[in-house]
Design brief:
Zincin-like; 2 domains; elongated; binds zinc ion; about 170 residues; 5 helices; alpha+beta
């Protein structure tokens, strides 16, 4: 994990507090679960992470598995991502309070998040992060869809929308 600066930590804590309040309102979590969510230490992912937006980390002590941190992508702390950041925080806090795998009961709890539409912003976020780091745009000659990537596609990939082979266009820097 990357240690947040004081300003980032304040932001992480206020996101977490908002999410825990919302979890209380749902009325399905125990005192212990809410206390765990309130106490977990918060950190950041590396900013070059594109696919991972949050992670819950555990350490092992003999047979015991101990909750370590919940880390969020640092760009999620920017104002425009607030609604998605809250959703990612909720997702990670569900892990933190004991729902460790993405099974059916996890997905059910996840879908109780009141602003569930914000969950759909994940793909946007991934694309924004890729765009920032992109050296190449894989471009569809047919429908003009663009896929920002760090490596050239070298003719190996097809457009998701229309199946055409993608072309490599270098990014101007
Ligand atoms: Zn997860
Ligand atoms: Zn296409």
């Amino acid at each position: 994990m990357v240690r947040p600066n004081p300003e980032q930590l304040t932001r992480l804590e206020s996101l977490r507090d908002g999410v825990v309040q919302q979890m209380e309102r749902l009325g399905i979590f125990s005192e212990l679960q809410l206390a765990t969510a309130t106490k977990v230490s918060l950190g950041l992912l590396r900013k070059n992470s594109t696919q991972r937006h949050g992670v819950t980390r555990w350490t092992r002590n003999g047979n015991e598995i101990i909750l370590e941190t919940v880390d969020l992508h640092p760009v999620l702390l920017e104002e425009i991502w607030t609604s998605y950041a809250s959703f990612v925080m909720y997702h990670e806090l569900l892990h933190a309070i004991g729902f460790r795998s993405h099974d059916k009961s996890f997905r059910e709890l996840e879908s109780l998040w009141p602003d569930f539409r914000s969950a759909k912003r994940g793909l946007d976020f991934t694309n924004q992060m890729r765009l920032k780091r992109a050296r190449w745009i894989w471009k569809c000659p047919q429908c003009d869809k663009e896929f920002p990537r760090q490596r050239p596609s070298r003719g190996k990939y097809q457009c998701r929308a229309c199946g055409c082979r993608l072309h490599d266009v270098p990014c101007r820097t």
